[in-house]
Amino acid sequence: MTDASNFIWYELMTPDPAGAARFYGAVVGWTIATERDPAAGDVDYRMIGRSDGGNAGGVLALGADMLAGGARPAWLGYIHTPDVDAAIAAITADGGAVHMPATDLPVGRIAMVSDPQGAAFYIMDPVPPPGMEGQESDVFSVDQPQRVRWNELMTSDPDAAIAFYTRHFGWGQEGAMDMGDIGAYRFIQRGDVGIGAVMPLMPGMPASMWSFYIGVDDIDRAHAAITANGGTITNEPMEIPGGEFAMNGLDPQGAAFGLVGPRKS
Predict the structure, then answer these.
(1) Which of 34, 131, 176, 248 could join 235 in a cystine, given CB atoms 3.0 to 4.6 angstroms apart?
(2) What gap in Å lies between CA 223 and CA 229, rounded to an integer?
(3) Name one Pfam family in it (predicted).
(4) How far apart are CA 264 and CA 185, in angstroms?
């Protein structure tokens, strides 16, 4: 695959995959499988399908043992690295941590790590399906609905975080938006593509974390679907550069997410 250092997969960890399927089906238009993927073995893992037939990511069911061990509903992103073990060594030497050691799966080698400020993410060296060796993952898109369109890092130390991801994944940082007393909203790029931003940790937020903004066809339709299907609005739609709108919410199981899309009414 040719998408090294890109976000190539997104995963929802939830104790209620069926509830998540109902919620994200109504809000985003996804279809989450009703049965676990046989390739995942003993783990309850289900694919998230888009209306165009592609996949948007996966759902990991949190069992009682995982919850007892501290796992909580959340979205996590996977960053492609060609050598998971070398990446782990470099990340830990730079002050990061390992939360799940390198593991071989049928789809590739993965590990869960965190940056020095504590924001968790996966690294992965994927095994592409036969005949797709030269293709890039399409779960991230700057402008398409039913894909993640923006990756946002809220962190206790933006300068250190930007230096970390630049060092380990080759991302760039150009441009910023002034948010007043909060600080700067600093844009990050992979090559010439804007993939997201880094911002200071907001008051009341307990820890540094990645957030992901999912593309929707109509922000007002999605907004109504959140509350109608048991979710919670945490930030109302706000116009962003380019004329679209972004908002934030919690799904019924408590996983935080963002949405971005046009206002059609």
Answers:
(1) 248
(2) 10
(3) Glyoxalase
(4) 27
Q: Assign domain 148-261 to its CATH superfamily.
A: 2,3-Dihydroxybiphenyl 1,2-Dioxygenase, domain 1 (3.10.180.10)
CA-nearest of 251, 246, 157 to 196 is 246
One-letter amino acid identity for 175? G
SS3 224: helix
Query: What's the pLDDT at 53?
Result: 95
Burial-class residue 96 by CB neighbours within 10 Å (0-12, 13-18, 19+). Answer: buried
Shared fold status for 7-126 and 148-261: yes
pLDDT digits (tens, 9 = 90+) for 163-221: 999 999 999 999 999 989 889 999 999 999 999 999 999 887 789 999 999 999 999 99
Question: Which strand ranges, in their side-by-side order, compose the sheet holding 45-49?
Answer: 31-32, 45-49, 55-61, 7-14, 74-80, 120-126, 108-114, 97-105
Eight-class DSSP state of 37: -
The structure tokens 């073995």 sit at: 41
**CATH top-level class for 7-126?**
alpha beta
Cα-Cα end-to-end distance for the chain = 40
Q: Are 77 and 188 a contacting pair, CB within 8 Å?
A: no
Q: Provide the β-strand partners of residue 255.
A: none
Residue 139 zone, left/alpha/beta (φ > 0; ψ -120 to 50; rest): alpha
The residue extents of the domains of the chain are: 7-126, 148-261
